[in-house]
Amino acid sequence: MLFGRKSKEKEKKQTPPAGEGKAPSAVAPKPPQPKAPGESQKVVSTIKEEGDRILERKVAESVATQLEEAGLVKKASGPATSGEEAGQTVETTAAAKEGYTTEEDMLQLLSEQIGMPYVRVDDYEVDQELVSNVPGSVARMYRVFPLEKNSDGSVLMAMVDPLNVHTLDDLSLLLNCSVSGAIANESDIMDLIDEFYGGTDESVDEMLESLAEDEFSLSIDEANFDDLERIANEAPIIKLVNLILLQAIKDRASDLHVEPFQNSFRIRYRVDGTLHETVPPPKHLQLAIISRLKVMANMNIAERRLPQDGRIKLSMSDREIDLRVSSLPTVNGESIVMRILDKNMMMIGLEQIGMMPQDLEVFEKIIRKPHGIILVTGPTGCGKTTTLYASLQKIYSPMLKMITTENPVEYQLEGVIQVNIRERVGLTFAACLRSILRQDPDIIMVGEIRDLETASIAIEAALTGHLVLSTLHTNDAPGAITRLIDMNVEPFLITSTIEGVIAQRLVRTICTGCRETYDPPEELLIDLGITSDMTKGVTFYQGKGCVDCNYTGYRGRIGIFETLTISEGIRELILDRSPTSVIRRQARKEGMRTMREDGWEKIVRGITTLEEILRETQ
Ligand SMILES: [Zn+2]
Known about the structure:
This protein is an alpha/beta fold. 40% of the residues lie in helices and 20% in strands. The strands form 4 sheets. A 7-stranded mixed beta sheet has the order 12-11-13-14-10-15-18, with helices on both faces. Helix 22 packs antiparallel against helix 23. The longest helix has 31 residues, at 39-69. The chain starts with 8 loop residues before the first helix and ends with a helix. Zinc ion binds next to loops.
């Protein structure tokens, strides 16, 4: 682990993680762009980015067509995900693997298309001095290897991902010289990196040590725009921030918090729902790190008194990662929080989110209804959006029109129309939903039902033949019914539209690297309501803690669910405006498995622990 947690740091350094041989390395932060305060600049850079993206896609398409015409590859069938469109390298290797042609042919064609030379790294003699001038962390991060220094001082770099337009810009900034690229075989480049930079990266800690001088410090009160711009584009700062982001992603963090205090500066990651503190960077780097993050997120770096929102897009080998960035001015300077959205993590099916066969069967039946309302409930961060996305994917068909309205759109789904909520300009869920209904949809996903207005339009939509998927903030499934009644929705409208409610929580799963059997304490079983005859023949597991799980004993999370369907008995109780507890009792009588029961099944299967289920179902 490169980014040592405060406590276990020593231990980790002595035992390098085994599973981390191949570091995800093609982090492609946006290049620092000419900045001027104000909106117009933002628009310009967005347009530039869009232009870059279009260019990438055009090149990819054109190469694909050329390959196809040359009879080298067959056109890919099946729906392409948005990530694959620009994924030139992915396509070339995939086609090569299928034996249509050699990777070399592909790279040569690509070289002709984008006008970058194709080289064989064997033809170059490795220049040790040049290698030592390019830090290993940079080589790994961008997946490049320096080949030679030209007479004009520029460096020729072999690149795994030549279509990434930002890499060369970033490298020139980092190395402080002009850099040109050459296409080369991926495994050759990676072998060279392993051979000449060894298996270890420069860690954030080491990086911090080299930044110990006050070089990049600025007085928080006096810094002007030019100062901020300068420190944000200093090579060591770029590198440090890239490393921090890379490490957060490697550690599977869902959020990254950058927090200023009066005498300290703190960085924390949230992994599997729990915050972990990292070795704090020196206080004097605060302004530089925060300005760098704001540059990357396309925020106005001169504005430090108002909250701002931004986005950072990174692509790491085969993964696309989106960071939603928000800044908040505090008494000690700006605090930055980044939500890390990993498309691969979001795009998982209903089976992978942890629905057991019996729940899955009921849930699939509900989402295949032609109309009605399906609600997913639970607190913030319990995976509701992932469940909705998984549902949309399950029922996706080109014969159906699907529209979503979200706050904000977390991931773009191929073939689905998605709309961002903008409350500031009056585009609320209710307003958006009303417009969506005029767009002839079949299936609508509404990010959240928060008020009577949104609830009423959702009901109207369901009554007029649409399937509506949405979320509510309630503790359990029966609670959703009472919540709607509290919003003043008429009970008969609820019974005639709601098809099902699913409540969920996320629990951490036991790390498979260090799972061991153990005898749980008696009290824990009693607290969970587990009787002695239930534990007969059950083996309990826990994670001992290992390098893979950062000594937490847990790695990854899974959902626990309870699914409420509206039976005749429940319908009557709703019409009588019965309280949650009564609806709940009836549902249990009719066989609804509670989240805790679902959790118990996952304990028995050795997936999670008693502690996790107890914590999430209290
Ligand atoms: Zn472990």
